[in-house]
Amino acid sequence: MKTKIMTVDLEPDLRSKNSKSIELALPQLLNFFDDHTIKATFFTVTSLLEKYESEIKDIAKKHEIASHSHTHAWLNEQNAEFEIGHSKKVLKDYGLPCEGFRAPKFITTKNHFDLLKRHGYNYDSSFVTVLPSTFKVKEIEGVKSISFPALPSGLTYRKLLHPVSAVFPRPKLFYLHPWEFLEKNELPPATSVTELLLRINTGNSAWKIFTKVVEEEKKEEMERCRWIGCSEFLKENRGL
Ligand SMILES: [Zn+2]
């Protein structure tokens, strides 16, 4: 049976202060995962625990929680240690074990793996590549690094390049954000061209594109494909 990694970045809606998606899209996403027997890693911005403790603890009953920093600030030399270390501590204080980290916007600092190691992380998922078919797990300074291609792996790009993206290769790792399932009028107003692009094919269209990714896999694989979280994948593939 083929195993693949499903990941969700749980963060405020498009860099706003709000997280309507936790109320409006997350329940449907969790049901979708149940219906398709998908286990995922939720890279979580840990400041969200102040308002959404029960929702995040509910996710943890079935899925893996990891860190997506504390405030979703892009990492730099000044804030990296706080974002990496404090988010791990916050998760621990809430009784949520955390093994992995993903940097906001995939931006990391030079001493990234040193910081992860010092704060007790086992793996990282912050590195994306341009070329497709470059999913890779390697060990860097005692931390497992799961790198993957941005294009076929992200719902963000699949939405932006829809319908061309339907022919993208099937990804070994997938990532998405609950805010991608909000309709345009539920999202904060766009303040840049990039933000306008992120609103293309949002909401119902995003559901159709994501459902197709998951259901095509099932149809085309002779054996059923199994989606699991990062930690479980690393445990099953120790030799990688
Ligand atoms: Zn993010």
Quick overview of this protein structure:
The protein has 240 residues and is of the alpha/beta class. The chain has helices spanning 20-24, 26-35, 49-62, 80-93, 112-118, 150-153, 155-160, 193-197, 204-220, 230-236; strands at residues 3-10, 41-44, 64-67, 100-101, 123-129, 136-140, 143-149, 173-176, 226-228. The model has no long low-confidence stretch (mean pLDDT 93).
Task: Map the helices and strands.
Blueprint: E1 3-10, H1 20-24, H2 26-35, E2 41-44, H3 49-62, E3 64-67, H4 80-93, E4 100-101, H5 112-118, E5 123-129, E6 136-140, E7 143-149, H6 150-153, H7 155-160, E8 173-176, H8 193-197, H9 204-220, E9 226-228, H10 230-236
Helix pairs in contact: 4-5
This protein binds zinc ion.
The site of zinc ion has 5 residues, from loops.
